[in-house]
Antibiotic biosynthesis monooxygenase (Planococcus halotolerans), 165 residues
Amino acid sequence: MELHKWSGHIDKAMAYVASLPNSRLIYLMNGQDAVLMYETEGAALLPEVDAYQILDASGDINAGYFAVFNNIPVTEEGKERFEERFQNRARKIEDEPGFKAIRVLRPLNSDTYVILTLWEDEQSFKNWQQSNAYGSAHAKRGTDEGIDKVPNIFPRPSYVTTFIR
């Protein structure tokens, strides 16, 4: 299964949505920026999409109204270790109030993995960031055991983008 993500101006996104009325496109926005995404086992519905293989999935991505894309560039030599870290994740996020879905996404046309989480609202996401589950999931960050301290895995800093539905 793959997830395809198109990014661009909201006007272009609305035109795509109008031209594909029976598709299951998820429309997200942040100011004038928009994202259209969908899960598929087939060909791309839209031109110029970022395509990802879904490595891990929980929840229904159609249920969330606040989307968080944690974009993490990973070197070729770091992919196996990075994927192993997420395959062995604690899975406590699923029990958090307001959590709707998570997708761990391997890039098919770039080096940037995406950890996509969807939430009932922005406050639910912020509450999770202050929770024990978040602390547990990120407990090794910055320590000798943390993947962030392993050389040659991350070619540049990660970044987060957020959108609302």
In short: The chain is about 20% helix and 40% strand. The domain at 2-164 is CATH 3.30.70.100 (Alpha-Beta Plaits).
